[in-house]
Amino acid sequence: MATADQSPELPAVARALEAALREEVAPAVSAVVLHGGEVVHQSFGGWAQREPEQRRLGADDLFDVASLTKVMATTSLAALFHAEGGLALDAAVASYLPAFAANEKGAVTVRQLLVHSSGLPAWRPYFELAAHDELAMPAFHPPEQRPHGVPLGWALFRARKLLEDAVLEEVLEAKPGQRALYCDSGFMALGWALEALGGGSLAALCRSRIFEPLGMADTFFIDDAEPAAAAALRQGRAFVATERCVHRQEINCGAVNDDNAWAAGGVAGHAGLFSTARDVARLGQAWLDALHGRESLFAPEVAQAFARRDATVPGSTRALGWDTPSAEGSSIGARLGRGARGAIGHLGFTGTSLWLDVDRELVCVLLTNRCHPSRDNQKIRAFRPRFHDAVAEALGI
Question: pTM of the prediction?
């Protein structure tokens, strides 16, 4: 493992990460651990890309953080809007996004979207509507046949409209509040509701309200429906490759892995962010500071409310946007998050995670590209607990 700028390294954590590379948990790994607000571990290693060419991971390479978008962008923006009084958690989503009321969804609340109890389906391939639409289809052509610049923007504007219409017309599978089922479409809808409330795109709102204030210069959405802005964001940056995408016939690298997010142009409430481990840690520390009543971007009382496990659905481990450790087999491992105040965290499909141990004042960030080149690699599931147990061992917990 390598470190940047003489960063500190916890030997037990370094050994675990080196083992992950040897065991091919993922081609590349990057980790940051903060304890009491101080960096106690920061390292990276492996291959940013294996196909179609090999490239070593650099200190500043950007990862597709996948569903960490849900907490880093959508949940965090919702917390800010709630603190300002603009977003009521128990208000109907349709009061901010009227079209969401279609097909008897008018009673679904913002809180239910945040805790995944809306009754919406877990996932649907909405992108297929765009992939088979005459106007949007070019965005799903192989790279050598795909339009670039303004024509690609037109295709993605059409794809985004098809995606949004499909989600807003979605039919509930269960009565709101009766079950907890992890759901991407609910966070897509929440992202659009926040855009309506904030009067701007999710990308712009998160940049101005969250990422810039926290100094997260390497965290952003790439909106390919705005080609010039997308090109500027990619200029001079290196990205970590993810999946060999059968739908776009390419190795995703610098373009979002999630196909529904791609159909949204790359900006969605459930996925789309690119970031580095150190930036993810900054976001985590801001939440941890708020949970301890210190000065933070987030209001302490709102952070407490968002970190509290939902009590309305029996058996749910979900808080508002965040997850909490399950009784057995949690990705946070067997030693962290076991204090009185517990832990909050989230995972990402590409092999990413963020966990905050509130009592121990720990921020644990693990970023990988475990799905490069194939999503069939599931070794990350067993490794995440090992990583967090190694952090606990190194710190004597």
Answer: 0.98
